[in-house]
Structure formats: structure tokens, C-alpha cells
Amino acid sequence: MTTHVISLVSIGAHPTSGRPRRAEQDARAVELGLQLAGDNLQVLHAGDIAEPTLRAYLGMGLAQLHVLEQPAGADALPVLGDYLQDAGAQVVLTGSQAETGEGSGMLPFLLAEHLGWPLIVGLAQVESIDSGVAHVLQALPRGQRRRLKVRLPFVATVDNAGPKPRQSAYGPAQRGVLQEHDVQVVDDELFTGAVLQPAKPRPKRLKVIKAKSGADRMKAATAKASGGGGQVLKGLGPEAGAEAILKLLIEEGVVR
Amino acid sequence: MLNTLLPILLFAALGLAVLGALRRVNMWRRGRAAKVDLLGGLLAMPKRYMVDLHHVVARDKYIANTHVATALGFVLSALLAILVHGFGLHNRILGYALLLASVLMFVGATFVYLRRRNPPARLSKGPWMRLPKSLMAFSVSFFLVTLPVAGILPADFGGWLLAALLGVGVLWGVSEMFFGMTWGGPMKHAFAGALHLAWHRRAERFGGGRSTGLKPLDLSDKSAPLGVEKPKDFTWNQLLGFDACVQCGKCEAACPAFAAGQPLNPKKLIQDMVVGLAGGTDAKFAGSPYPGKAIGEHSGNPHQPIVNGLVDAETLWSCTTCRACVEECPMMIEHVDAIVDMRRHLTLEKGATPNKGAEVLENLIATDNPGGFAPGGRMNWAADLNLPLLGDKKTTDVLFWVGDGAFDMRNQRTLRAFVKVLKAAKVDFAVLGLEERDSGDVARRLGDEATFQLLAARNIQTLAKYSFQRIVTCDPHSFHVLKNEYGAFDGHYRVQHHSTYMAELIDAGALNLGQHKGNSVTYHDPCYLGRYNGEYEAPRQVLRALGIEVKEMQRSGFRSRCCGGGGGAPITDIPGKQRIPDMRMEDIRETGAELVAVGCPQCTAMLEGVVEPRPLIKDIAELVADALLEEPAPAKTPNLREPAEVH
């Protein structure tokens, strides 16, 4: 029995040009899905069926891609949730964060909550799926992996620890079919009501070089980051805690 | 006795040859349709054979003369033998003519034999070692059986023993020369070669023409295959072209990938295509294998995918598309077309472009440059140069096509040098700035015809908005694509390489040039400027104008060795025993030159990648810019600013 795997895809944006492309992490979700389910993988997108970039996913060798037709600015969450419930999906794969739109990274969490399914963050590999239980590896920082046992069905997000997506080829991309599904459009008031503005780059922490010798600099450059300078506050009241934090901020020059 | 035996032997062999020819023609007809002038081609064939093909063969005088004697002797002897011995026209004059023809053929065959005594590695052995003996058997036998016809010897001379011997000789001769010609023997090259010349896919190459642009795929035709998967996906005249190969190995000797130990040998590739079109294995191939790949492990047939059956994918990705094989091929076979056709299938259908290929193609789609740099940074190299934009000017004399080298810090020095030259010559020029996109060269060589056509269409659309006299570029790849490959999409421009344009400027006296100082110089011909576009002279002319006497490399001009940077080879990066640029640097070192002049960003990058110590690498534009003499500074005019009123 093959597992019913559905990968969710969105329209990405190239980091330097901002042009639409297949989203990096979503492509990894498709790749993982193809490795799991092969031709039985179902790929799902909620959005505009006329978006030519969708064909970049078909180019990975998919015969079809299901599209829940929605205008821009509509809420993908309820339609995806309803569809997944009805489709009998056992494993739902998504990227961790969309490259366009709100890109909050909340969708997998809200979707898992909506469906009442467990969510795995940072799925790296599925080791086995047996009688309704999957053994998977979850990616942790610094290349660490954590082995988890999850019951089906579940939602999992794939980040850059997932398998590298295969090349999208022109031929299959042109031949693949975009399957349209009519759904009820729900406005995403949180999104349409908000004002978007370009993100400011996160300020860099000031680097104070304290090393006196080359050896010290070498040590500072190679040693693992350690929170040596911090202090642990325990059993303090909120007033005293706030005072300590403010003191630090003034010391660091953040608050003047 | 011979009088009854000879016609039987001759006509039997001829009959079998006709059957073989029909069988062979049917094999070619498995290929796809091609637009060919069937009759016109046939009529033009003798001239193509005697002029164009002979020009290529005549680069090796020994074999050219040998071939003229053998082939002419054979054709005459065969025709006369059919008349004299086949139809029994025992005429003395015909007899003497036949004697002469067979002597001529024998002389030729002797020289073939001498060449084959200690054959160079590039030549195929196997049945080809038998050929000089077969030629001799044919010529000697027909000489002897014709002696009585010419009245030199009595008809019954020598008795039955000699007659039997001659019978065997004639049998051997006609088997090889008539029967073998159409049933796959070494003489197949004459039969298939003649038809290949008649129905060549690039008829423009004959009569001194040049045709190097890749042929476009019709992407709107949904029934046409995207590239070549199986031998039958080639056009029929491509299949015919493969069959014309004489296995001389000139391509093998010229191929940079073969020399570097990468798994490619153009001769073997063509022979593998022959195996593919006829069906079978490569076990009978008697030449050099693909480096690192054993012979006899691959097989195929017209209906079976080529890659990973007949040929491994690395073989196709090793090619730098330098066209050295095509340039050398005395049969004018189009190796590069075949390789790109097969690459197209791998990229467009299989999504199997190796190594960085997929990333580069994705970048080209998303950022219009292979490096994935932000398109907005395309003009950063010229931030302080105040270059006129064509978008502002709308019309200009020279459109300076910058190319993707704009993102490469080394090439930016070349670009800035060329701008200095343009400014010094007071040329009316402009750049497209951010409107320029990659020309599509790399995408096309990697087989991604769709992305190429996308980029080409957008560039052509941009260029159509403006008016300019000519396009000048420092990049021979952009030059080739703009000049030879945009035409198929209705983009017709006058395009010049910067060396050509600078030669014109120097001729017109527009540049105040000093002399090149110091070190001795050699010049490396870029493939896409030289072999692809025939421009060998202009760069040398520019160097001469700088007072440089070019120390030519042994392999220069049309025999120039590739730097290894073409055809997406640095991107697909197929491992070999050594690197192609290292071999080229060895060629450069042999001249003793301390500086090598180049005219291509790829060549610059590849050659500068060779570890030091090595000769310096400078673009021709840099050399010219260095030699520019500053105009005498205009006499300082006193400060004429009006005094400001002070209240």
C-alpha cells in the first residue's frame, strides 16, 4: 500500500531579482514527496492557475498539479484544510516559509491545528512508513538529526535540510496538466487589511575586538560561540528583572 | 573461362551492391524529415567533392594526392571494367585506358599501404588495415585480366591456374569495392560520403561559405521531439552524415576533451551513431576508445534511447563545442550539431544537465545572467564611466554589447579598457544598460533551447526599439549568437567583435597609438571568433599596429586549441586526466611568450585559472588601451567663472 502524499507548493521569488520562480523549499517538499510516493504524489497549490511559474513544478516530472483557484489576497488556509481533509491525505509536505505573500511561516502550524494533525518542523528524511506510523529524521541546527516516530496523518515542513530538488525540465513542464478546482474564496482580512513595507535589514551586533594577540583572535574566530558574558537571573521580581535588562541595554549602547 | 566468369562476378557484386544500397537508404530513412534540395544537391555534389572537400583533405598533401590517385583510378577502372569485362567490349583503346586507370589506382593503393604500415593512433585499424590490400587486389587483378584485351598478351596466356588466381583476385576486389561499399565495409565512406555531400544539412558551407549557428528547435510544434533521444530522432541526412565517416581520426587528434582524458572521442561518437542507426554493439570499433571507457560494453539500435545504452551522458557533456572536429573533418560531418541535439533531449526532457547546469539555467531564467547576480547590478562596473544609455539616446552608431562579463571582476577590466578606447576614438556609442540580457549562448549549448529562445526573443524585442548601425562586443560568444543565431528569430544585425572594430578604428586613424612596451606576445584564437566566424586576421592586425610581432603557437588560427571554456564545459565539469586550459598554457609556454593576448572573457577566465608562474593574460582591448597616447592636454584656460556678487 502506498502512502497518500500531498506536497503543497507556492510561487517563490528569486532572492536577487525578485522574479517569480518555483519556491526553493516547496521544490524540496515536492522532491521529498516524489521520493516517497513516486508517481502517486499529489501536488497542490492554492492560487492563480494562470501563473506560468506553476509549470516549473510540473517540470519536475509531475503529470498534473491540482490548483484550488483563488485570487491573490484570498486566505489559502481554510480551502487547503478542507481539501486535505476530503482528499484523505496521510502525509502533507510544505516548505517552511513562503517566499512571496505574507511569508510568515505560520501556514503549516495553522493547517496542522485546523486538521488536528501532528506537525513536524524541518523534516529531513522519511526512513519508513509502516502500519500507520512513520519513522522520520528531523533536522536540527549544525547538521544534527533527531529521529521521530509519528502516527499518520501528519503535516511536515521541509527546509534546506531536505533533499535537493531535481531540475525542472521544459518538456514535462509543457505537457503537465494544471487541474483546476473551484473553491469558495475566503478573503484573508489579516493580509489584505495590512500594509506591506520592505523589511529593514536586521541590525548587526557590534563586534568589539578585545583580543590582544593573534592567538587570541584565532581563538575568538574559531571557538564556539559561548554566552560567557551573560548572567542568569533567578528568582527576581519583574521590577528587578526589567532594571537588569535596562542596565545591560544602556551598557551596550542600545538605549541612550 | 575468365570471359564468362568476369561478367558474372562483376554483375553479381554490382547487384548485391544495389541491394545493400537500398538497405542502407532505408536505414537513413528511419530519421526525421529534413528540408533538403534533393536534385540540386546531387547536381552540386561533384563540385562539392572536388573543391570543398578537397580543400579540407589537401591540408595533408600526402593523403590528398594518395586519395586523388586511388579514387580517380578506382572510379575509372570500375567504369571501364564494367564496359570491357562486364559487357565484353573488348576494344583496344578501352583496354589501354583500363590499364592506365588500374596503374593509377595501384600507385595510390601503394601509398595507402605505406601510410598503413605504421599508422598513427588516430587511424582506425581493423577492416581499414585490409583496405590497401583490397585496393591492390582490385587494381592488380584488373590490370592483368585486361592485358589480353589491350593485345599485349595472348588471350589464353598463363593457363587455368593464372585464370583461377585472377578470378580470386577479382572476386576479392569487387567484394570489397562494390559489395562492401554498401554493406558496411570501409568503402562505405565513398557511397555514403557522396550522398552526404549532396544532401548536407548545412549546404551553405560549400563554396567557401560558413554556417556555424545551431539550428533552432520548433518549440511550437508539439509533435516534434525536443532534441534527440533515439537514433531515429536525428534527421535522415544527419544519419547519412554519420555513415560518411572514414575514421581518419582527424577529429580525435584535434579534440581538446579527448586530449584532456575526458570521456569523449568525436570519431567514436560518430561510429556509435552508426551503430545506433544500424543496430548492434560497438565491439567492432577498431580505433581509440573514449578515454576511460572500455569498448564492447555499449550497444544500441534506432529505437532505443542513446544515452546510457549506446553513449554515456558524460561523453556528451565533455564537449566544449569548439568545433575543432568539424573544422578538421574531411567529410564535413557535423559533430557539434549531433552533440547539442542529444544534450537538448537530456536537458529539455530529462532535466539531467549535470553539476551546476541546472542552477545556471535557473539563474538565466530568473536573473538573465548565469551567475544569479541581481540584474540591477549589471552596470555597476561602469558606475563612474558615465556611459550613454541607448534607452536615453534612442539612436547611436555603435551599440556596445557588454555581455555577462559585466558581473565578472576580471572581465570588468577588459570592458573598462574598451570603453577607454571607444572614448579615445570619439566613437558615438551607447550601451543597453539594464535592458541587456544574457545572449543565451550558454543555455543553448547546454541544450536548453527553450531558455535560449526566451532570452533571444526578449533581446530582439529590446533591440527593435532602437536604431544603431552596428553592435560591437568583447565577447565572441555573444558575437556569434547575435550574428549567426538570432537571424532565425528575425534578429538581423551587423555585429562585430571588438578586435575587428578596433582594427577598423586603427585603419581609419582614429586612435593615437604608441607601441606596446616590453614582453613578447602570442595570441590565442577564441573558437567562437575564429572557427565559428572566420576572424583570424583583425586581432593580429591590431597587435601589429601596437608594434607586436606575434609569436604564433603551433596550434593557432583555424587549428587553435580550445581554452576549455566553451559549450558550458566549465559548468558541467566532466573530470578528465588533465585540464584543457593547462594544455593550452603549455602551447603558450612553448612559444616563449611572456604575455598572451586574448579576445574572449571565457578564454581569459580559463587561462588565468592556470596556476602561476605562467605568462600574463591580457585582452586585446587592454593592450590597446595601455598603448593609447594621451592627447596633449588642452592649454589650461584661466578660470572664467563669473565673479559672484557678494552683498
How many strands, what sense, and barrel or not for the largest sheet of chain A? 7 strands, parallel
CATH level 4 superfamily of the largest domain in chain A: HUPs
- Broad CATH class of the largest domain in chain A: Alpha Beta
Number of strands of chain A: 12
The count of strands of chain B amounts to: 9
Count of domain modules of chain A:
2
What's the CATH architecture name of the largest domain in chain A? 3-Layer(aba) Sandwich
Could you say what the CATH topology of the largest domain in chain A is called? Rossmann fold
Structural class assignment of chain B: mainly alpha
Biggest sheet character of chain B: 4 strands, parallel
**By helix and strand content of chain A, what is the structural category?**
alpha/beta
- Approximate strand percentage of chain A: 15-25%
- Biggest interface, residues from each chain: A-B, 16 and 25 residues
> Averaged pLDDT of chain B, please?
93
Describe the strand arrangement of the main beta sheet of chain B, using strand numbers: 4-3-5-6
Backbone CA Rg of chain B:
29 Å
How many angstroms separate the termini of chain B? Answer: 130 Å
Structure annotation, total helices of chain B: 26
Domain Electron transfer flavoprotein alpha/beta-subunit N-terminal (chain A): 11-188
Family (chain A): Belongs to the ETF beta-subunit/FixA family.
Keywords (chain A): Electron transport, Transport
Organism (chain A): Pseudomonas proteolytica
